[in-house]
Design a protein that fits this description.
- This protein is elongated.
- Mean pLDDT is 84; it is low at 85-92.
- It has helices at residues 30-50, 69-81; strands at 2-12, 20-27, 57-67, 84-85, 88-89.
- The protein contains 2 helices and 5 strands; from the N terminus they run E-E-H-E-H-E-E.
- By secondary structure, it is of the alpha+beta class.
- The strands form 2 sheets. A 3-stranded antiparallel sheet has the order 2-1-3.
- It has one domain (2-82).
Length: 92
């Protein structure tokens, strides 16, 4: 198993009974993950403002996660090809 850091954002809206979450990328180091938190939060806020939602609370976290080495190998191969999985460029 290999340790990766998964970046996830939690989003709360007034009058909505559940907190939404959005998982984004996995990084090899905590430092790489931490460096992306603010830009992820700004990206989410911009998208929600475009949708007309003006009141929200967004917080992001880097979660330590274990991944199988073959998963990381596949991500690295796809990244080198420039393939986007799930509509987003891989950050691993």
């Amino acid at each position: 198993m290999t340790t990766v850091w998964f970046l996830i954002a939690l989003i709360a809206f007034p009058g909505v009974p559940a907190i939404q979450y959005k998982g984004y990328y996995a990084y090899h180091t905590l430092e790489d993950c931490e460096m992306q938190k603010i830009s992820l939060e700004n990206f989410i806020v911009d998208r929600e403002l475009q949708k007309g939602r003006t009141t929200m609370f967004v917080n992001s976290y880097c979660l330590e996660m274990q991944a199988f080495p073959d998963q990381l190998n596949k991500y690295e191969k796809e990244k080198q090809k420039g393939v986007k999985l799930g509509g987003q460029q891989l950050g691993v």
